[in-house]
Amino acid sequence: MKSLVAGLMLCVLSTATRTDEPTIVNVWPGEAPGEPGNIGEETNLPPGEDELPTLRLTNVTTPTLEVFKPSPDIDTGAAVVICPGGGHYVLAYDKEGTEVAEWLNTIGVTGIVLKYRVPAREEDRRWRAAVQDAQRAMRVVRANAHEWQIDPERIGILGFSAGGETAALTCLFHNEAQYEAIDEVDDVSARPDFAALIYTGGLYDEETGTLRDYIEVDDTTPPMFFVHAMDDGLPAEHSILMSLALKRAGIPTEMHIYGDGGHGFGLRETGSASATWPDRCAAWLHTIEVLTP
């Protein structure tokens, strides 16, 4: 155990103390697996003409975890790894990352933003580098649970859009590592204890009208919570069909489909009922006893 902790602490870029500043930790002790070395410098892209100001990161080659701890007097011991969306091209790092971590802190949950690799490294498996990073991230968080005062059996994952696909596949592939083990951290479980998928993509095959052929739910799949808007250009079937598959397998699931809201609203006010999803999510976390210290 001492050697494991010592190895992990080499990854910590800032001291894990009780301050307002988040702790930042490298996901990998060295270069991430399969890196081509030609991605370019990490960049913050400007928003499009019709977009709200958002930190849009691309050319990410060094994945990190940014750990936001709640106030000690409300800390439940639960934690959530957050996967921002961005089509596996960019990461909406504040809108679907740090802002979400700050909300989780208000309900006593440690919010951990995963800066995973973008753009996608493989055309046919656009999710693979992101899932590699997310699997490793779950292991790093669980291995550091004592140090960060987190319950290792109440660590979930939350993702938006492409980050929702990343979160879902991390749940579904928890016994199927997408990279070769590199150290003792990889002996730790990568299985999220629960998941929240917000306007997720990547699960539904529009040609067949079914879930993608590699989506398999069994009795080890974690409970999941879904949010989607019917007017989202990314079809609500991604969430609906996945939720039904969980129901058939007897896995606890909750789904909220809103009439409007579009795509990419995060926690920002839209004037739509879809903006109330954080309250529904918090209530669900109570239901599955995640928020019970």
Give a description of the structure:
The structure is a single chain. The protein is an alpha/beta fold. Helices cover 24% and strands 18% of the residues. The strands form three sheets. Strands 1-4-7-5-8-9-12-13 form an eight-stranded mixed beta sheet, with helices on both faces. Strand 8, helix 4 and strand 9 form a beta-alpha-beta unit. The longest helix is centred in the middle third of the chain and has 16 residues. The N terminus is likely disordered.
Overall mean confidence score, pLDDT: 92
Total E-strand runs: 13
SSE order in H/E notation? HEEEEEEHEHEHEEEEHEH
> How much helical structure, as a percent, in the residues?
10-25%
Strand content: 15-25%
Strand order of the largest sheet: 1-4-7-5-8-9-12-13
Number of alpha- plus pi-helical segments: 6
Which descriptors would you attach to this protein?
single chain; 293 residues; alpha/beta; 8-stranded mixed beta sheet; 3-stranded antiparallel beta sheet; 6 helices; disordered N terminus
Set out the fold topology.
Elements: H1 2-9, E1 23-26, E2 43-45, E3 56-58, E4 64-68, E5 79-83, E6 91-92, H2 94-106, E7 110-115, H3 128-143, E8 155-160, H4 162-172, E9 195-198, E10 204-205, E11 210-211, E12 224-229, H5 237-248, E13 253-258, H6 277-287
Parallel strand pairs: 5-7, 5-8, 8-9, 9-12, 12-13
Antiparallel strand pairs: 1-4, 2-3, 3-6, 4-7, 10-11
